[in-house]
Structures are given as structure tokens and as C-alpha cells.
């Protein structure tokens, strides 16, 4: 057995498994895992989840696992692998067992594991083997850390560097952050909260930060019609990195990643507050008010969840409005951010190919696996879900109701009771507030046509203003990197570049005989011309230089902005807008 001299004594596993994670050699990026348990049959199975809940992609976490061995006392146990992430043990007695293995922790995201000299982050779905017949028993977690590190774990404490989870699901839903980070404590409606940042100390650098987070958190409670958050002890973990964006929701915590440069940029702090609002609202929407298909979660395989449009789309729409409702944002900022989302939606041709429900059902194979043609073939259920949520909110307001009332109703009928919802339950909840939605909503969920955005926005005195392009449309998009050759990142379906037989990955060399080295060169070659005459493009593909004739299309809109339309100004639209912005009926 590969024991080390200072292994802790063998724990009592009568109540359930004990998971010991050793992070004391962070520079090796290896987590040593020791799993103690008492088997309840002679052929128990050990399996590692294939995905991290909240992020709908099979990640095969098992690729990071190595050197698994299982012992019963001093005797090695025969282990046979029955699938890529499952092992079956052959026992002759039910005496306690210990499984020991290592995990390579080098993938820095909110859903994976990262251990380095200055911190450790573990998404436990990628760490802890599930023991058959033990899922619903308590799991004890113990950490062994470098001397100067503190642990941050959203679980009830069970002694120094030890915690107890009611069952395997609660354990997997508890991200582990550890490092020499300061911990900031505050409360929301009397409920204790902690904020921990790796990569800087945000609350120290921004003294108003925690007060603003508290106001956003209280706005989430008000939206849900609840006096306090759903969690009784909540942890925020922020990884502040050079470049990053993302978050993952948990019952009692969230892990956020954000870019330092983005945070310093205009509007960056606001974007981070929106991310806070988004993940905090998930305490209800998707974590406790959850799709029936995820009740309980199948960790081993893909689960189709048609209601993701509601879980993520509605949350994405509300995260824009919540800071304003909390009093930490302005109407102008909200219009700018919502306008940017609507613009992004209108600039995505894939919305004509994939419906909203289809986008949710195909999450596993499309949204998380983007390629050069994604914008032409799919639409994010976050983005279109937010657009449909806006339309639903404004539609309900015509009937004297609003989206918040539907959300609260579903919380009371399903979430608060631990009942999962089906897609039809969502439709019924909307139709309960506005009967015509029994037909309209199913249509909006499958249709690839745009909803009547202009009509609904007019109710609140708003309109979308087009920003026209100053150049003809070429139908291509260049790679963002400035240190690489001018490579095509995307060629628009049915656009001029596609007609000229160009494809993603082609390297542009010259336009009409003028050498192109940087994006500036291209902008210069195209500037001040609206001519639609054919242009000669010299390019390189697979090491061979080729040329083609490219005939541009007329300019198409560059973007849209959401503006208060003076032609729609009236007392009524003004009152409608103020009510809508308050998020309440
Ligand atoms: Zn989300």
C-alpha cells in the first residue's frame, strides 16, 4: 500500500464514506485522494462523475485520475474496470476498504480542478469516486493543506479542516477553494456570507463592493418574494485572472471567474455585479427550483433538459435588471447592456436554424462545443432565452402580471417542495398568468422566427436603433489575436466570402495586390469605399497560395442600440417603463 508516514488514523466509516484530500504538494499539481468506506455488498462499484452539474458537457473527469489502488486492511483488492470511469471490486468480506488515487489538477475553470503553488480549487465532481449504495449517506470531507493556507468550503464544519455533507450530491455541490486568501464576512438578511478572492483582494481594493453585493442579494430575495436567501450560509469564491469570464452555481455557494483587465475597464464592475446576481439567483432558479430531468442528477451520462431555456435564459434576463432594482445601477446602463444582448441576438444567423427548446436540448453537443460555424447554425439558450424572457415579461405586463410572479409561483408550487418541473409545468405557470401563453409560448419555444420585439419594446417607450456599417459586407471575421497572421476565424454562411470559396482558417495575404499584414492594413484597403465591385483576394491554405474574386454585399447593420424613443413618449409608456424596471408588477 502506498501509505505515507503521516497518514491520518483510519476513520470510522460506519455512518458513510470519508474523503481525505491532500493538497500539500501544490507545485506538483497532484491531489492525493484517500477514500475510506465500509462496503455493503461483495461487488461494490466505484465511479467518477462524467460531468459537473451546471455545465452540460461530458468532461470525462476520469482522464485526470491515476494510480488507483484499493486495500482491505493490508490486503490489495482485485479491481476490474467495467467502463471508462467505473471499477468493480471483488471482495470476500465486508471489512472496511480504502481506495487511494491521485488527480492531476491543472484545468483552471469553475467546473474543474486547479492546484498550484498559490491556491487550490477543486470541483469535487472531478475528484470524489461515488461508492455504490452510499450516495444518500453522509460523506465526511477532510483536507490536508500547506501550512499557510486556509480552506473555504460551503459545508457544515465537523472539526478542524473537516466537514460533513448529508450525502454524495451535497458533497459534489461543494466547491473547495484553499490558499492564503483573506476571508471577508458579511450578512444578507441575517444570513452569514463569506467572500474570498484568489488573484487579488477585491473587497479590500473596493470598499463599497460587499455593500453592493449585499444590495444585489437582497434584490434577489425581493424578486423571489422571500425574506431571506435560500441558503443558510453562503460562500462567494472569485478567481480574478488576467482573462476569464464565467460562473457556476451551487446550493450554498458560487464560483466566479473574471478578468482583471475587464474589471478595470468601463462597465467592468457592473458586469461582475451582474454575474453575482446571476449566480445568486440560481440559488432558487435551477438549484432548488429545478428541472425534473435533474431530480436526481445522473452523473454518468447526458440528460436532456428542455427547461434549460428557463433556468438560464430567465436568469440571464433578470441578472441585467437586478443591479438596477437593487439601486446599484442606472437605467442608462441597463438599456446599454440589454441593447447589447439584443444586438448580439439579431447578429446571430443561427437563430434562424435552431429553436430555443432545441438549443436547450442540444446543449451537450453544441453550446459547449463551439466551432467556426456555430454562429450560423445555433443560438445560445442563454441569449435567446433572455430575449424570450424579456418578451414574456412585457407580454405578462399587458395582463397586469409579470415574470417575477411566474417565477415565485413556480418556486411555491415546485421549488420549495423539492418537486422538479417539466417543460409543460413552465408553460402552465405562464398560462396561469396569461391564458394566451398556453399557445404562444410553445410556439416561441420551437419557432426560428423572431418574436415581435419592436411591438413589446414600444409598450415601455423603447426602440432598437440600427448602427449602419460604413463598408460593404465581406462575410468574414478575423481571428482576434494580433500576434498571428491574418487568419479567418469565421466565414458567414451564404455570405460573399463563402461564395468566393474562402473558409475558416485561410490566411489573408493581399487585397487587390496590396499586402495585408495587420487588421489595420485591411481596414485601410476597405476604408471610404462603398463599391461593390469584385476584389482580388490572395490567401494561403494548407501551405499553398491561392487567389479568388470576392464580390462584397451592400453594408449590413453593425449593431443595434436600445433607446428611449421620443415618438413613443407618453405618461403611459413612462409609467410602464418604471414598473418594468422595478421588476415588480
Ligand atoms: Zn447560469
Cα separation of the termini: 65 Å
Instruction: Give the overall shape.
Output: globular
Q: CATH topology of the largest domain, which one?
A: Neutral Protease, domain 2
- Regarding CATH, which class of the largest domain? Mainly Alpha
Q: How many distinct beta strands?
A: 28
Residue share in β-strands:
15-25%
Q: CATH homologous superfamily name of the largest domain?
A: Neutral Protease Domain 2
Main sheet summary: 7 strands, mixed
Chain-averaged pLDDT: 95
The assigned CATH architecture of the largest domain is Orthogonal Bundle
> Level of helix content?
25-40%
| List of distinct ligands in this structure | zinc ion
Number of helices: 17
Decide which structural class fits the backbone: alpha+beta
When the domains are counted, the total is 4
* Rg calculated over all Cα atoms: 27 Å
